[in-house]
Write a structure and sequence with these properties.
CATH topology: Metallo-beta-lactamase, Chain A
CATH class: Alpha Beta
CATH architecture: 4-Layer Sandwich
CATH superfamily: Ribonuclease Z/Hydroxyacylglutathione hydrolase-like
Radius of gyration: 19 Å
Distance between the termini: 48 Å
Order of helices and strands: EEEEHEHEHEEEEEHEEHHHH
Structural class: alpha/beta
Number of domains: 1
Largest sheet: 7 strands, mixed
């Protein structure tokens, strides 16, 4: 566990997501949870060493299974965006019934068993503030990556948790994305001088830099352009598969042993994103 500023910690040792812990007088505010039950118990044990107040609040950055499967095991109050909360209501409990071959981290692990989804106790629609001492925490709705995705900003400490909006050395999750909106969010992040001095925490990589934000935005712009070019494609699956090799090459410093997983993630994400926002059917629905 790394203390990035006073009383603000991140943990990157568990698979799937970067975890956060914010120590306040009233208690601990947690950002995301491990997806394996044993890891959740280990993380809870680690948190006991931080002290602070007795209350516990878990903030879910979006509804992705990598960061929500283990929420129930954290045994605390759960906060998420209203749209993320609605996703859980429609999810089956059996792991076998979940989407597979989407390139998610949880898919690489066996023995996860059935899931007891942690239903959010607190939801919001646009933004909210958490006042657990004299350093308030601002939670902002940023639905570029997915309908229920958020950012968590600690203004006094100059820390911002970005979830999957910025990840490096791997393909971002595109399946539920609104690419123009996502790109707009990242441009706001880079153009606002306030954030130049912030510690930025990725939901997958720990601390990231403005260079990583620019790289992410450039990749999304390219994906958006390529998906627009597929309008009217006769064989969507083949057309998308042809895009994958060139787009994979644009991921900066992608480890060689992660290429297969990221190709799977990219193909799944491109197809899902296209069907939601770029196909003729999606245009008719939007209009």
């Amino acid at each position: 566990m790394q203390e990035i500023v006073d009383r603000v910690f991140i943990e990157t040792q568990y698979p799937g997501v970067t975890l956060g812990a914010i120590n306040r007088q009233h208690g601990l505010i947690l950002v995301d949870s491990p997806f394996r039950q044993d890891d959740a118990r280990s993380w809870r044990s680690t948190l006991l060493n931080l002290g602070g107040g007795v209350a516990r609040l878990l903030i879910q950055m979006d509804a992705h299974m990598d960061r929500t499967m283990g929420a129930k095991a954290m045994e605390c109050t759960i906060l998420s965006h209203l749209e993320a909360a609605s996703v859980f209501q429609n999810r089956p409990a059996s792991i076998k019934a979940q989407t597979t071959d989407a390139g998610a981290e949880w898919e690489k692990y066996n023995g996860l068993g059935s899931i007891r989804w942690g239903t959010p106790h607190i939801t919001f629609s646009d933004q909210m503030m958490v006042h657990w001492d004299d350093s308030p925490i601002q939670i902002l709705y940023k639905p570029g990556i997915a309908e229920g995705s958020i950012w968590v900003e600690l203004t006094n400490e100059k820390v911002i948790f970005l979830g999957d909006s910025v990840i490096r050395q791997q393909v971002p999750f595109l399946g539920d994305a609104n690419l123009p909106l996502w790109i707009e969010h990242l441009k706001m992040l880079t153009s606002n001088t306030i954030y130049q001095d912030y510690f930025m925490v990725s939901g997958r990589n720990g601390l990231v830099t403005m260079e990583d934000v620019h790289n992410q935005a450039a990749f999304l712009v390219e994906v958006h352009t390529q998906l627009q070019s597929l309008s009217g494609a006769k064989n969507l699956s083949d057309s998308i598969n042809k895009l994958v090799p060139d787009l994979i090459k644009k991921i900066v410093r992608l480890p060689a042993n992660q290429v297969d997983l990221n190709e799977k993630r990219l193909a799944f994400g491109l197809q899902s994103c296209y069907m939601h926002h770029y196909s003729e059917k999606s245009f008719k629905k939007d209009n």
